[in-house]
Structure formats: C-alpha cells, structure tokens
Amino acid sequence: MHDNDNTAAKGQVLGPSVTLPATGLVRLSRVLELIPISRSSFYAGQAKGLYPRPVAIGPRARAYRVEDILALIEKGVA
After folding, report:
1. Tens digit of pLDDT for each residue in 10-54?
2. What percent of the chain has pLDDT over 90?
C-alpha cells in the first residue's frame, strides 16, 4: 500500500496530501496546514469563540481535538 492511498483506515482525507486521523489530537502547526490563516488570526478567532480551544498535553504543550477541527472545516468557518 502506498502512502498516498486514500483509505478509510487513515481517517479523514482533506486534500491531495493532507489527512487526519479519525480521532486524536493535532498540534497547531498541522491545523494551520488545513486552515489557511495565520497563527495570530487563529488565536484571535479563539478569543472570539470562532475556533476551538486546545487541550493540555503537557506542562507547556497544547493540541486540538481532531473532531473539533473537522467540525470547524465542515461548518465552513475556516
């Protein structure tokens, strides 16, 4: 099987080379690959309640739930 095969086991396919797992966590850098805005615009959107808040995965590390990011993309807010 090739890396670029689009199968259901890999999760949600969003573009030719962008895939997300069905569940789990992703870091902000990966989120910004999917949503074409700047980091500061994303943080401003969080403050306004447009974008999801991260969850703590360590003392200084944050990540986003895949389900929240997929819902955001499906709503078309991004």
Report:
1. 455 555 466 788 899 999 999 999 998 999 999 999 999 999 999
2. 60
| Cα dihedral across residues 45, 47, 51, 57: positive or negative | positive
d(CA 31, CA 39): 10
Picking from 23, 27, 26, 35, the residue whose alpha carbon sits closest to that of residue 74 is 35
Q: Rounded to an integer, what distance in angstroms lies between the CA atom of residue 64 and that of residue 3?
A: 24
Question: How many CA atoms are closer than 13 Å to the CA of 51, on its beta-carbon side?
Answer: 22
